[in-house]
């Protein structure tokens, strides 16, 4: 009995550990879509997309007061989530007109987001109207050539935050609305 107890105490000391969960990789396919896998990205014909990295020396202490573009808001959200601080995420939110009950619910949601690992933040855009098949085609009557209409800019829909659950491998996506107010971009519920 004594040797059994001694063996049980020595197992951790000699390096026996349960297997670690698989690493989730974020891969971009050639068409630009994002896929999550535990395999090497190259094995599925994709390339790895790494999350933005904050400097280890803590030099990124600048507080974003105003995101001037949707991409700047996405970068600010990535940095805030990576810091694990719900208050940094809240600084990117437009709280105008929000009651205390709703604000408390939003802060609970932001704390849950801050507690998870970051994978990616992407700006969501509508598809460009020139890619639709029902766009009428016109011909130049003098040259007989097909005229291609000028592409219309895509509309910004919001941000998609991709994370992994606390278990380290289950993906979860959160979508944020966003709008422009006073020449700044803000998150909204």
Report a brief summary of the structure.
The chain has 189 residues and is of the alpha+beta class. It has helices spanning 2-13, 70-83, 86-90, 100-114; strands at residues 25-28, 34-37, 47-48, 117-125, 138-139, 146-147, 156-164, 171-181, 184-188. The N and C termini lie far apart (60 Å).
Distance between the termini: 60 Å
Query: How many separate helices?
Result: 4
The CATH architecture category of the domain at 66-126 and 152-189 equals: Roll
Q: Please, what is the average pLDDT?
A: 78
- Indicate the low-confidence ranges by residue numbers: none
Helix proportion of residues, in percent? 10-25%
Spatial strand order of the main sheet: 4-7-8-9
Order of helices and strands: HEEEHHHEEEEEE
Major sheet size, sense and barrel closure: 4 strands, antiparallel
Predict the CATH topology of the domain at 66-126 and 152-189: Nuclear Transport Factor 2, Chain: A
Radius of gyration: 24 Å
Structural class of the helices, strands and pairings? alpha+beta
Written overview of the protein:
Helix content is 24%, strand content 25%. It is of the alpha+beta class and 189 residues long. Among the domains are: 21-50, no CATH class; 66-126 and 152-189, Nuclear Transport Factor 2, Chain: A (Roll), CATH 3.10.450.50. A 4-stranded antiparallel beta sheet has the order 4-7-8-9, with helices on one face. A 3-stranded antiparallel beta sheet has the order 2-1-3, with no helix packed on it. A two-stranded antiparallel sheet has the order 5-6. The radius of gyration is 24 Å and the shape is flat. The chain starts with a helix and ends with a strand. The model has no long low-confidence stretch (mean pLDDT 78). Residues 1-22 form the signal peptide. Keywords: Signal. This is DUF4124 domain-containing protein.
